[in-house]
């Protein structure tokens, strides 16, 4: 058995350790280490310190060694096990970090879609805590991902500039509406009543439910005021869309032109819709690029509706669902504020260009 490392403390070091032990802000791990060093300085054998603190003798020996070499810094921060330390070894440690980062960003584990700390630790011969620190320092989160879609619309720039021009520089004597359907909204009734929220516990809701049918919300968001015109309908064919356009038309002053931003859904381009538009010259449709729903501001309103009225809602019938949707719209309009578009078309085109370039590089690999 190797000889125990002798720990000698200056008065200042003893005060620092005792302060760490007594402070409520000190982590439990550091408190244990500080106690071990104080006991070691009193020549208490490592095995007795280990028994007192409920850890292994080897652990006490490691803390002794770290404190003797690095003083307080040696026990404050964990040294990565499975990675080399100190002097020339620091270079090896940095090489290991770079290997982990490269393996994380440029490869996948066999039989899995992404790396975990333990899979990477096994592959690299280090501990999972070391891998976790490397990922944190590099800002890597393999367990997370985001959805995306880059539009392939051949007229992307033309449509983008048209829509953003309406947002940032709307025409005079006109109203700009963002229109879309939120289809197949389910009237869900929970199988059991949930428990209310209380201190220390959030509200509850059963995972199973009863279906009572669906409804489709047609909504038109006034970009200048944030107010919404909404109608719930059973279906979302061109007949319902045309009926809703007529509602928006009649509820808007006849002295104003209507510029309506919509997506490329087939019902919006139906021949009957085109015929009606020819007869109603003041109404003009503006189509966003394909795969660019983020460009339609009414989607932001749909997000609020889902978050605040639908996701946790309990509806015993479609009628009750539609009533609560209309109540939400009324409340929204009482305190409406516009969603302000701030990013220019040029900035968006730059970002889309970078995304397309990155995708082209991936496809060539």
What features would you describe in this structure?
With 365 residues, the protein is α/β, with parallel strands linked by helices. It has three domains: 11-76; 88-138; 156-348, Nucleotidyltransferase, domain 5 (2-Layer Sandwich), CATH 3.30.420. It has helices at 11-22, 28-41, 46-53, 57-70, 72-76, 88-106, 117-124, 128-138, 156-168, 238-250, 271-279, 298-310, 318-334, 345-364, and strands at 174-190, 209-222, 228-233, 257-262, 283-287. A five-stranded mixed beta sheet has the order 3-2-1-4-5. Strand 2 and strand 3 (228-233) form a beta hairpin. Helix 2 (28-41) runs antiparallel to helix 3 (46-53), helix 2 packs across helix 4 and helix 3 (46-53) crosses helix 4. The protein is elongated. The model is unreliable at 81-89 (pLDDT under 50).
List the helices and strands and how they pair.
Layout (H helix, E strand, L loop, with lengths): L10 H12 L5 H14 L4 H8 L3 H14 L1 H5 L11 H19 L10 H8 L3 H11 L17 H13 L5 E17 L18 E14 L5 E6 L4 H13 L6 E6 L8 H9 L3 E5 L10 H13 L7 H17 L10 H20 L1
Parallel strand pairs: 1-4, 4-5
Antiparallel strand pairs: 1-2, 2-3
Helix pairs in contact: 1-2, 2-3, 2-4, 3-4, 7-8
What's the CATH architecture of the largest domain?
Answer: 2-Layer Sandwich
Cα gyration radius (Å): 32 Å
Helix/strand order: HHHHHHHHHEEEHEHEHHH
Main pleated sheet = 5 strands, mixed
Distance between the termini: 55 Å
Q: Which strand order does the major sheet show?
A: 3-2-1-4-5
Q: Give the domain tally.
A: 3
Q: What characteristic shape results from the CA principal axes?
A: elongated
Structural class: alpha/beta
User: What's the oligomerization state?
Assistant: single chain
The name of the CATH topology of the largest domain is Nucleotidyltransferase, domain 5
State the CATH superfamily name of the largest domain. Answer: Ribonuclease H-like superfamily/Ribonuclease H
Percent of residues in helices comes to 40-55%
How many helices in DSSP terms? 14
Q: Strand tally, please?
A: 5
Segments where pLDDT lies below 50 for 5+ residues? 81-89
- Percent in strands: 5-15%
CATH C-level category of the largest domain: Alpha Beta
| Mean pLDDT value | 89
